[in-house]
Amino acid sequence: MRHTKQYSFFVLLFMALFLISASHAYAVSEITTRPSTPHQETPASSAVNKTCPGKCGKCNCQPTIEKNHVEIRDHKTAEFVKHRKWMIDELWKTHVLPAMGMMASQLTAGAVQQVFIIGTFFDAKHQLETQRIFQQLMAEAHRDYMPSEGVCEVGTAARSLAASDRKTPLAQTILSERSLDRQLRAKDTIAGSDLDADIKSRIAHFAKNNCSANDNAGGLEWLCKNTGNANGSGGRSNAQGNNNNPQQNTPPNIATANQGATGNTAAEAATQNNNTSANSGNTNQQSDNNINPVNLNSNNGGTGNSNNNQTPRFSVRGQLPNGGNNQTIFDYRTINFNIGNHFNNLSGRFTVPQNGRYTFTATVTMNNPDEIAVVSLRKNSQSIFNRAGTRVGVQNIRFTTNLELERGDRITLFSNSRLGSGNHTFTGALISSNDGDGNGVDNAGDNNNPPNDPAVIAQKENRNKDVDFTRAVLSKSTLDIDITKAGESDRDNNGENEEASDGAISKDAQALFALSANLFGHKPLAFAPAITIADENGQPKTTATRYLDLRSIAAKRSVGQNSFAAITAERFSGDEQAAPYIRKILEELGIKPDEMNDFLGEKPSYNAQMEVLTKRIAQNPTFYTELYDKPANVLRKQAMLRAINLMQERDLYKSQLRQEMALAVALETMLHDEDTRVRAAIDGLSPGGRPAFNE
Fold it and tell me: Which neighbouring-strand residues pair with 374?
């Protein structure tokens, strides 16, 4: 616009100079070329001296001069008038003014066109800037609303915290109640059946699982000699309970163990109306309350036939079981048979009962339209046999394989793709046993077992776990204890009374129960007969107050047991849905897959998940690199860390409540002696108020 104004100014200036030059040239030419015309004489403006002084004398030149002067003035005036009229009427009105009008019109049209073009440029500029702003905002929105991988990892890994955390108070409550039942000698526990039964059961458990011949200056050599065999080298126990007291029936899970080396030395104990005896025959139990007998002895190291001569085997099938898609296949709809009850349908896991050679057959239908599906047979969460399909889409995979397995191995069927509708089957059976005579008798108690024998390895791993809190609890982020699993919590506090539905109670549970018994209430509270507490009509006797003293001790112990239960419950098996996501985080940190199970367990506990979310995830370099490219994710991670911090603060708050309660009980215990002293002093006052003795 500025250049346009300068251009117009110079054009107008040039036109003005051109007009002035043209007017001047025209006037000169008219004056010099046009002939003179007579004009009317104009009177002189003043008197003229007509005399001719000087040399002229009598000459007559004055009139002529005056006449010429008048003519010249009239002519010039007429010419200027004519020129003015020509300039205005002819040049200006006829030529210049129309030309300037046309020029003004052209300049105006050109300026308008230029202004329109300039306006178009401005409109385009603003439109492009607006589009750029919109694109920038759109890019920022895409960037800000696209969470980073770290945020997704944490959000996904935290999805199972609620389910795992829900199990924690349940497990804590069950542990506390079971420990309290043992102290109060509930009649459905071993401690409630016999004064010595609890101690005997714990000794048998210690000798079988936790005994170390190096302890007690080597004085436990004979006790630990037949680890896993409470009967010596060949004896078997026959426990028969005969309970004549209707108010306290002996549960069918009490049996004494023969401690002799070769004979049948009987362990006898008599409590009120309970009688227990030991014989050398097969293990049998009878009770007046008609409960099915339960075999408590493993007969390890024995030479006779096992009570169960049937070969361990199972066969299950289902139209569309659960699992698959990078998960274990489980929850089959039909169980054809499960001899030995070693297959757990809830987890799809077969627990190997004894060393030997096993055969497994599986038929799996899968539906993967993108890639070839693979079915894996896993041992202890590691793939040992894979069979792939032949094409994408619906795929039917069938295989049979034989494996050499050791007692305690866990076999599962794993699929990397989604299961399709079809007949899914899974079978397994023992082909040949390596445990002795092939009759299902386990010789784990044999002193000649090789060092690599699973029984020896298990004994070394469990050695002194009944007194080692670090190895039994703190050394593992996840304990192999699922309180929601059938049979895991329905047993006595030593974990020795009955087999679980999936084969056997876990070693972690056994160690935990044994450790709890050694920590709290090493000896159950004293037994008070019914006749000493109340009469037949239910009226309390004076001696009932002594029983309240026992309950006071149990109440104080329960506070300590609550802390123990809270710490261990956080390590119980959690929600299995979290395992793949937590394992992925550890895999990015370089932890090998075969080491993850030792750290996490098959089903990571609440403690293990919090360990990963609050510590391990911050060890990943990606956590820090993502702080550079997406500022919005920094705010998200701040909120994420704050949420995790709030969860930790809540856990700390619960811990502080337990500490406060423990301090309150400790203070009460410290004041007990002072309370006793003051009571004695008050009771010893004389009637006059003077002390009856010298303090």
Answer: 388
CB 503 within 8 A of CB 345: no
Question: Is residue 524 within 8 Å of residue 553, measured between CB atoms?
Answer: no
Residue 469 Ramachandran class (φ > 0 left, ψ -120 to 50 alpha, else beta):
alpha
| pLDDT, position 316 | 93
Q: Where are the alpha helices (DSSP H) in 329-453?
A: none
Cα–Cα distance, 612 to 157 (Å, whole number): 9
Which residues are CB-contacts of 98 (< 8 A; sequence separation ≥ 6)?
A: none
Tell me the CB-side half-sphere exposure of residue 67, using CA atoms within 13 A.
Answer: 6
Cα–Cα distance, 378 to 169 (Å, whole number): 32
The Cα 398–Cα 421 span in angstroms is: 15
CA distance 449 to 524: 37
Taking only the tens place, the pLDDT of each residue in 11-47 is 677 777 766 666 555 554 544 444 444 444 444 444 4
Mean pLDDT of 535-550: 83
CA distance 313 to 429: 4
pLDDT of residue 123: 92
**Residues in the chain, total:** 695
**What are 666's two structure tokens?**
């400790």
* Residue of 211, 174, 157, 235 lying closest to 458 (CA atoms): 211
Three-point CA angle 49, 50, 56, nearest 5°: 115
Give CA–CA dist 526/180, Å, rounded.
14
Q: What is the pLDDT of residues 375-427, one digit of tens each?
A: 999 998 888 888 888 888 888 888 999 999 999 899 999 988 888 888 889 99
Report whether 204 contacts 232 (CB < 8 A).
Answer: no
Given a contact cutoff of 8 angstroms between Cβ atoms, the answer to whether 352 and 409 are in contact is yes
**Residue (of 453, 570, 568, 575) closest to 511 by Cα position:** 568
Reading the block at residue 283, the tokens are: 């293990």
Q: What is the pLDDT of residues 632-643, one digit of tens each?
A: 878 888 888 888
Contact 306, 299 (CB under 8 A): yes
SS3 489: coil
Q: Give the predicted TM-score (pTM) of the model.
A: 0.51
Pairwise CA distance, residues 50 & 41, whole Å: 18
What is the C-alpha separation between 320 and 336, in angstroms, rounded? 16
Q: How confident is the model at residue 8 (pLDDT cuts 50, 70, 90)?
A: low
Cα–Cα distance, 666 to 557 (Å, whole number): 11
Distance CA 155, CA 582 (A): 11
The angle at the Cα of 343, spanning 340 to 345, to the nearest 5 degrees, equals 135
**Tokens 């694109």 identify what position?**
135
3-state DSSP call for residue 453?
coil
Q: Is 340 left (phi over 0), alpha (psi -120 to 50) or beta?
A: left
Beta-bridged to residue 360, according to DSSP, are 401, 428
Question: Of the candidates 528, 440, 596, 573, which has an alpha carbon nearest to the alpha carbon of residue 170?
Answer: 573
Cβ(435)–Cβ(363) under 8 Å?
no
**CB-based contact 392:369 (threshold 8 Å):** yes
Cα dihedral 360/365/369/371 (nearest 10) = 10
Of 571, 526, 529, 583, the closest CA to residue 551 belongs to 526
By three-state DSSP, how is residue 678 classified? helix
Q: How far apart are CA 368 and CA 391, in angstroms?
A: 9
